[in-house]
Predict the structure.
Amino acid sequence: MNRIRAINRRRPLAGRSILVTRPRAQSRSLCDRLRALGARVVVIPTIEIVPPPPGGAFDRAVRRVTQYDWVILTSANGARACVSRAAALGLDLRSPRHLRWAAVGPATAAVLRRARIHVAMIPSRFLTEAIARELPDVKGRRILLARTDVASPALVDALRARGAKVDVVAAYRTVIGPRGAGPRVKRVFSSGGVDVVIFTSPSTVRGLLRLLGAGRAALKQVTTVCIGPVTAAAVKDAGLRPGAVAREYTIDGLIEALLEVSERGKNRSAR
């Protein structure tokens, strides 16, 4: 985004302490950009991504991928899981010409494209509900949905209602609120060491709530910034008010929302 590039020359987030809750391996680019904008960044993953055991249901699904008309991936984690397991099993996911791939958004699509897999469909809004509405040529088609073990059944139900034959497999397991992160999270909040929390999925919200336990009231004292409406809904379900929600459900959109809420806060302080 042009606005982000322009203000990169300044440090509009100087003095802000921002908690990033996504897994460390996936947060490096986000953290680098926040630091370049002047923020102090605290990384405490509130979820952990765990691969499924080799030889299980996911491996079997990857081996028979040629039986499907569509593969739907609703996260970059799912895309990485498919690509890495296919490589480990010696399979070429590019070979079946009839097989089409759908990605929930640009980050997921980028993982597939790096593996030279053509992405046939990205929804107009980067949401699973948009996939359910917009996926073409569904009736009677066999669809493989590879995703986390804690995903909502809404996408499956919607596709089946349109006449699709859907198989669901856990491409990875999401551990909500890994125990080792609890003491550090509580120290950060008890010391007032963070004033903004970034959430990139509903599971990161649930993970932080679990880690805080009885201390979750501390979240009312900080600004929460959400990558999209589904994540914001998880914040509202916890009885909290999202400070900002990205209009574009990407890291660029997240940073744009963060800059806007930060600017509003400065303007209020100046009055």
Summary: The chain has two domains: 2-46+177-270, 50-175. The mean pLDDT is 92. Strands lie at 17-20, 40-43, 47-50, 70-73, 100-103, 142-148, 165-176, 196-199, 223-226, 244-245. The radius of gyration is 20 Å.
